[in-house]
Amino acid sequence: MAKVLIIGAGGVSQVVTFKCAQYPEVFSDIMLASRTKSKCDKIAAIIEEKLGRKIQTAQIDAEDVPALVQLIKSFQPKLVINVALPYQDLCIMDACLEAGVNYMDTANYEPKDVAKFEYSWQWAYQDKFKEKGLTAILGCGFDPGQSQIYTAYLAKHYFDEIHYLDIVDCNGGDHGKAFATNFNPEINIREITQKGRYWKDGKWVETEPQEIMFPLTYPNIGVRKSYLMYHEELESLVKNFPTIKMARFFMTFGDEYLTHLRVIQNIGMASIKPILYKGVEIVPLQFLKETLPAPETLGENYTGETSIGCRVKGIKDGKEKTAYIWNNCSHQAAYNETGAQGVSYTTGVPAMTGAMMFLTGKWQGAGVFNVEEFDPDPFMEVIGKHGLPFEVKENIDLELTY
Ligand code: NDP
């Protein structure tokens, strides 16, 4: 039985908080704190109505470290689950260190003024967490998160050596809007407009955005154009599985989505450089975010499924083999259960499950960890029951060239 403090009250938070509330035997007390308290209260009301459980709420600016330390010390959680934005990661890690509590997030730190994705800033906290005997678990959503646990699971049970790893992320759903992003629009557009990057023979290879595309077949969805992009978990996976010769990440985008994105970029609305508007400094992408649908509002009429998995080629008992592990998640089922759409759901369920692994002693250790460093088995044993069942197929055509 442990207390958890959840920070951030968007789409992902709604699912993490809801799922934690389903397991009072593990999460005995829950506090939800965010910049806008009314959003915490709205989530608390949904949980009270659907599960009959009360949770506490609070207002906090997570970038105000002294205020956050005070909040943590007054509530005394065992774990802080950060589902605010990547910008707050380091502030929340600092506050956890000072208050002496453990930390978890679902996305790596990004500085506000440059869209740069790397673990260096958070890995630099290794000694500080170790010295205090505390645990920091990085990137425990789906991707990053479950994608790494899938890799560790295949490496443990299906292969002697993994040589080729492709993480494939398809949203085959339809929210009925002309243009919307499934998680925070600012973070999403920063990520997708970056150059692509993949790991090949010991070094990173850079590509233009959406330069490499494979038409891939997703279970129960069909063929979708899948574009190579850089994703943060590649960095830790190639470090923790050094036999990997090539590691790539693919995400599906519809033509309509890419056309909107191109227009947004061409007219300067994807820019993160501040401009003056009527004497006030604004960041075009932050302004655009305010005009786009919020991720937590997309659920109601969302149809279709997501399908995220890993396609792996390697060797077992001296022979070459392939394996594909994946989960399909229905947007409607996610909404019916938690009031949130499938992308928030596929992020929130692994976050709750990772928190449960830590709080029940199945994942342990002092320092900073990426999730593939823990034993995947206890997580994989319960993830289906928690809402994200998986399937594995061996020795099939992975539809990729190397
Ligand atoms: P939302 O924009 O819906 O929610 C973000 C929340 O964080 C908002 O409630 C926001 O408050 C709050 N927040 C922002 N700044 C602060 C601050 N300074 N102090 C306190 N709270 C703050 O985003 P999502 O729920 O879609 O995403 C949440 C996180 O999950 C992101 O980091 C995202 O990158 C990550 N993610 C990870 C995935 C994975 O698979 N690993 C997939 C999808 C998302 P306010 O309401 O006031 O704006």
Anisotropy-based shape:
globular
What is the number of helices? 14
In the CATH hierarchy, what is the superfamily of the largest domain? Dihydrodipicolinate Reductase, domain 2
* Overall domain count: 2
Q: Decide which structural class fits the backbone.
A: alpha/beta
Low-confidence stretches: none
CATH topology of the largest domain: Dihydrodipicolinate Reductase, domain 2
Specify Rg, calculated over alpha carbons.
20 Å
Rounded mean pLDDT score: 96
CATH architecture identity of the largest domain = 2-Layer Sandwich
What is the top-level CATH class of the largest domain? Answer: Alpha Beta
The percent range for strand residues is: 25-35%
Counted beta strands: 18
Describe the structure.
The chain is 35% helix and 27% strand. The protein has 402 residues and is α/β, with parallel strands linked by helices. The chain folds into 2 domains: 2-138, NAD(P)-binding Rossmann-like Domain (Rossmann fold), CATH 3.40.50.720; 146-338 and 389-394, Dihydrodipicolinate Reductase, domain 2. The longest helix has 18 residues, at 342-359. Bound molecules: NADPH dihydro-nicotinamide-adenine-dinucleotide phosphate. Residues 7-13, 34-36, 39, 60-63, 83-86, 88, 106-107, 139, 141-145, 183-184, 187, 294-296, 343, 347 line the site of NADPH dihydro-nicotinamide-adenine-dinucleotide phosphate.
Q: Keyphrases for this structure?
A:
7-stranded parallel sheet, Dihydrodipicolinate Reductase, domain 2, 402 residues, 9-stranded mixed sheet, Rossmann fold, binds NADPH dihydro-nicotinamide-adenine-dinucleotide phosphate, alpha/beta
